Amino acid sequence: MWQAIFRENRWKLPILMLLVCLSYFGFKWQQKTGEFNYVVRSDGSGYYAYLPALFLYNDPTFERAKQAEAVYHYGDISNYYVFKTADGSHYNKYFPGLAVMQVPFFLLACLFAKLIGAPVDGYSTVFQVFFWIGSLVYVFIGLFLWLRFLRLFLKEKMGQITPALLLFWVATPVVFYSFFTPSFTHSYSLFLIAALLNVVFKLKDEITSRRMVLTGLLLGLLFLLRPTNLVVVLALPFLWNAASDFREWFNRIFSQHKWKIVWVILSFIVLVSILPILWKWQTGNWIVWSYSGEGFDFLHPPLWSALLSFRMGLFLHTPVLLLVIIGWWFWFRENRFQAIWWAFYALVNCWIIFSWWCWDYE
């Protein structure tokens, strides 16, 4: 059986071996350098803090969570994620999507810590290791979901897909976020966007209630993880071969399956409702502008600096992405609708990302 599986795709065994090796060396590096105490750090402290604050301490001020974190970080912890409202209430400025996705691994860590007699405080080594494992699970599943999607989308280029995907993984910051800064949201976005593309690609062929619910849930998680992630919906039309095919499907869904759209809306609302519930728990208010004092400058995005500067230029720091520009030209010659629509999405996405007040995110 195994021989048949690997005969189907000669890349499966090398990929599995690569993932196992990188995981092993990543684990040993974290262990040797003592970095397991710092798996959750920086912005990740804010993303993660919902879990110990809610499940272990029932403390909407996050003070007990910060005290527990300080024990393992020798007092060096992030103090920039908890803010106060005018009436003195505390709130976490970060959105809870990462915490939601880490819930299963957090609960497993609680159980394992109890079994071995380790501190059940949310920040001991047991919790850090389970968090690291959880992040890798999402990365690895995300990579295979991308592989699955690209095979469906580019059937005639099967032999080029796997090596290209591996190249983009190891030659971009994705591999760094996978093993060394797993408490940031990037790896989780990689997983969710791949899952969304797979579901929507299947919706092209058959519109079912289950797929509509999954679409709504994935969009809800993308919003909870990072609201700007929702710009990915602009990319979805490129999944169709032509504008006429997309219009025909769009008309069909509103004429024959309009009630199924309700499933997308309801499942999206169910996930997103976690946010106002947490705001209410923290401040007593259903709505909080948690990024007070921060915002977008859509009229002056520094696109040139963001793409080509030494400070944080995307193409300068990650030159493998220049292959995207070259590939786009060949794509444009083959299918103008798909190429133009993807370029539109990419431009809007860059415009939004680099319009943030701190465009280099440093």
Give the SSE map.
Layout: H1 2-8, H2 12-33, H3 43-48, H4 50-56, H5 63-72, E1 82-84, E2 90-92, H6 97-116, H7 125-153, H8 158-170, H9 174-179, H10 186-205, H11 209-225, H12 243-256, H13 261-272, H14 274-283, H15 303-308, H16 314-317, H17 322-334, H18 336-353
Antiparallel strand pairs: 1-2
Helix pairs in contact: 6-7, 6-11, 7-8, 7-10, 10-11, 11-13, 17-18
Compact summary:
By secondary structure, the chain is mainly α. The protein has helices at 2-8, 12-33, 43-48, 50-56, 63-72, 97-116, 125-153, 158-170, 174-179, 186-205, 209-225, 243-256, 261-272, 274-283, 303-308, 314-317, 322-334, 336-353, and strands at residues 82-84, 90-92.
Describe the structure.
The protein has 18 helices and two strands. With 362 residues, the protein is mostly helical. A two-stranded antiparallel sheet has the order 1-2. It starts with a helix and ends in a 9-residue tail after the last helix. The model is unreliable at 1-6 (pLDDT under 50).
Unreliable stretches: 1-6
Biggest sheet strand line-up:
1-2
The SSE order reads HHHHHEEHHHHHHHHHHHHH
Number of helices: 18
In whole angstroms, how far apart are the ends? 49 Å
Indicate the radius of gyration in whole angstroms: 22 Å
Please tell me what the overall shape is.
globular
| Main sheet characteristics | 2 strands, antiparallel
Strand content: under 5%
Task: Give the strand tally.
Answer: 2
What do the pLDDT scores average to? 86
Measured as a percent range, the helix fraction is 55-70%
Structural class by sheet pairing and helices: mainly alpha
